[in-house]
Amino acid sequence: MECEIFFLSIVLFLIFESIFILFNKLRRPRDFPPGPRWFIPFIGNTRYLRKLAKKYGGQHKAFEVLAKEFNSPIFSLKLGREYVVVAMTYPIVKEIYSREEYEGRPDNFFLRLRTMGTRMGITCTDEKFWSEQRSFVVRQLRNTGYGKSIMQERINDEMNEILDILRKSNEEPVWPGGSNLLATSVINILWTFTTGTKIDRNDERLVKFFDLLQKRSKAFDMSGGLLTQMPWLRFIAPEATGYNLIKNLNTKFYAFFMEFVEEHLKDYSDEKCNDDLIYAFLKEMKERDGQANSTFTIKQLIMVILDIFIGGSQTTSTAIDLALMTMVMYPDVQRKCHEEIEKVVNADGVLPSYVDRQKTPYIDAVILEVMRFYCVAPITGPRRTLKDCKLDNYIIPKNTTILIGLASALNDETIWNEPRIFNPERFLDDNMKVINTDNFIPFGTGRRRCLGDQLAKECIYKFFVGVLSEFSLFKSDNKEDMPSLDLLPGILLSPKPYKIIFKRKQPKI
Asked: Membrane spanning segments where (predicted)?
């Protein structure tokens, strides 16, 4: 009898404990930001958010709707088991960027899946591991010429290849973002710093790499998708959730990069440590061989390479694509750009470099406005709070996931006058000096600022000026080729396929 009572007591305790846990899962934390109610404990707002994103054309659009609904620049969601806070306005976003307690990264199933089941690389790591690895990568990239004249030479080489391809188009309509024209050039610059070599545009390995990148981008979204919120779905629907696709892509990416690492291992010597990032990393591995808990491993090297290419290639090439598209949509802006270029190009036809961009303030303003207006990465993050902290008037518990509505911050009406209108003059004063750059944060700020922002800025400027120095851009006569301001949603926003005519300018007499 006593055993039966004891057993019954245990059962009742477990039932009441389960009810208590369930109740807590349904209850919003004290002083937490407002947001939609979550009725289902382990699903929360997942289905609701996906429905809004589909209805309004992207997750960033869904966030704008929710911010208006709750009349707050900060609102909360529950996505699966995670508490999520979304920050939407410039002051709030700037505060998050500048505070160390927001420098963490979530540690969930999906982000580990992104890095092949590990918590490695740079993008998805934090604290001591992240600090050590990021410092090393930044230092070694500089040693190989990143940010120096050698980087400008490589950018010039790629720009000349692009110009040569456009010359051969013979004024036939071309989509500059199609056939990986722009992306190939950006990737090749990154490739030389990372592997010490350049890949020919027609190399099968490059074609394979682009195919992997494109398939990968379709499998991810910034909230982590269903596999973050309900990772158990991989056992029920491995195909529908993208689990099998991502696992397959991880295997292919690892094998792809490992081929280059093995080539470096075969002819490694200490004297080559400044030739490229892979040699430098292998040297660091050698010096730390035998150390307990060393973060320098082959797997970590592969994850670093993956982060560099994923973070730097598509965003930059898409921004250039949008800048060129904008020229045919705003002919007056293109005309002013041409006039400014004609004033600064010297007798030898040498174009200004990025460090000399003060000679072309209007073009500088156009590029700034392109990146602000379109905001290729509308949601950045995700971040993780490293401790309990206060944001505005709300309490954000430790380990809360933070998503940053960068597009909203760059369209904040309290900062930008008529932000939905394309207007480069917003970045110029009456004396044609560039202004308002303090409020311009597409690369983030603080210690987690984008690692490749300098390369991105120089590529965008140089490619844009190079193309406009030689070509006038016109719309195609084919209605199906017309560009559109409505971008395709995804992790990164991208232009719908379009074509424009690159007509060579007549030389001055």
From this structure: 6-23
